[in-house]
Amino acid sequence: MGNTRFIPALTVALLLLNFVVSFSTKITTNFSADQSALLALKAHVIDPQNLLATNWSSAFNICKWIGVTCGSRHRRVIALDLSNMSLSGIVPPHIGNLSSLTWLNMRNNNFHGSLPVQLVNLHRLKYIRLSFNSFFGVIPPWFGSFPRLQYLSLSYNNFIGEIPLDMFQGLPRLQVLYLATNRLSGRIPIGLFECKELQDISLAGNRLKGILPKEIGNLTILKTLQLHNNMIEGKTQST
Ligand SMILES: *[C@@H]1O[C@H](CO)[C@@H](O)[C@H](O)[C@H]1NC(C)=O
Ligand SMILES: *[C@@H]1O[C@H](CO)[C@@H](O)[C@H](O)[C@H]1NC(C)=O
Ligand SMILES: *[C@@H]1O[C@H](CO)[C@@H](O)[C@H](O)[C@H]1NC(C)=O
Ligand SMILES: *[C@@H]1O[C@H](CO)[C@@H](O)[C@H](O)[C@H]1NC(C)=O
Ligand SMILES: *[C@@H]1O[C@H](CO)[C@@H](O)[C@H](O)[C@H]1NC(C)=O
């Protein structure tokens, strides 16, 4: 009789233990998912300066690997900076497993091929900088699926075709858009002018055509707009 009141306490303790165990299992699982995603990336790239060769080793914590930043609480990979490393090769689909990533910088390498659709799983991305590479193909329509994206640079690559028509509806937080020096054609999608937070735009050095729509005036905090070396027409009004 006297022991029955311990039963609820014991149940609570067991539930708590169960919660702690499953919670930490989940974090460990995701931590090793991050590790295997980065090791898959390493296996796919050519690394002439051997920057990753010994540094990205499973003998060390991934949070200490070059170019990798982890969050302070969950130890998940939140930023990946592989800029200026002379890396070449394709970006493997495994990158889509870095589910806490907010910041991706691969600027100034020789990555080629098209971008893996699995990138779309990275809903937390705020910053994507892939300029100065040899990425090829159309800008995939799923690029319009990053609700938190503030910075997008795909300049100086080999992107072809039209800018996806409804891409910008899915990028409500966009502040910076650099698509310069590719081989983009067609018109500027009107949805661009709904991204009210835009401050810097460069579409220079493509094959874009058409008339610059008056809705450009809707972008009230725009600071720079570069459209030169295209076939865009328009009259500028000073008001
Ligand atoms: C762990 O990864 C899975 C699958 O990628 C994801 O669904 C889940 O939200 C992640 N958990 C945490 C705590 O990030
Ligand atoms: C990997 O590179 C980082 C950054 O340069 C450095 O701090 C770390 O000590 C390196 N780790 C190993 C095992 O060489
Ligand atoms: C990469 O190079 C650019 C241009 O030279 C420089 O501004 C940037 O700081 C470099 N990034 C890193 C991580 O070294
Ligand atoms: C990571 O991504 C790849 C390819 O998208 C997939 O095959 C793999 O099962 C994923 N999960 C882990 C934990 O690596
Ligand atoms: C531009 O602003 C006008 C007036 O506020 C609005 O009617 C129109 O829908 C806006 N257009 C775009 C593309 O955001």
Description:
There is one protein chain. The radius of gyration is 23 Å and the shape is globular. An 8-stranded mixed sheet has the order 1-4-6-8-10-12-14-16. Strands 2-3-5-7-9-11-13-15 form an 8-stranded mixed sheet, with no helix packed on it. The N and C termini lie far apart (87 Å). With 239 residues, the chain is α/β, with parallel strands linked by helices. Helices cover 16% and strands 23% of the residues. The chain has one helix spanning 6-44, and strands at residues 45-46, 68-70, 77-81, 88-89, 103-105, 110-113, 127-129, 134-138, 151-153, 158-162, 176-178, 183-186, 200-202, 207-211, 224-226, 231-233. The longest helix is centred in the first third of the chain and has 39 residues, at 6-44. It has one domain: Alpha-Beta Horseshoe (Leucine-rich repeat, LRR (right-handed beta-alpha superhelix)), CATH 3.80.10.10. The protein binds 2-acetamido-2-deoxy-beta-D-glucopyranose (5 copies). Residues 54-55, 60, 64, 66 line the site of one 2-acetamido-2-deoxy-beta-D-glucopyranose. Residues 1-22 form the signal peptide. It is a single-pass type I membrane protein. It is found in: Membrane. Keywords: Glycoprotein, Leucine-rich repeat, Membrane, Repeat, Signal, Transmembrane, Transmembrane helix.
Write the layout of secondary structure elements.
Blueprint: H1 6-44, E1 45-46, E2 68-70, E3 77-81, E4 88-89, E5 103-105, E6 110-113, E7 127-129, E8 134-138, E9 151-153, E10 158-162, E11 176-178, E12 183-186, E13 200-202, E14 207-211, E15 224-226, E16 231-233
Parallel strand pairs: 3-5, 4-6, 5-7, 6-8, 7-9, 8-10, 9-11, 10-12, 11-13, 12-14, 13-15, 14-16
Antiparallel strand pairs: 1-4, 2-3
The structure holds 2-acetamido-2-deoxy-beta-D-glucopyranose (5 copies).
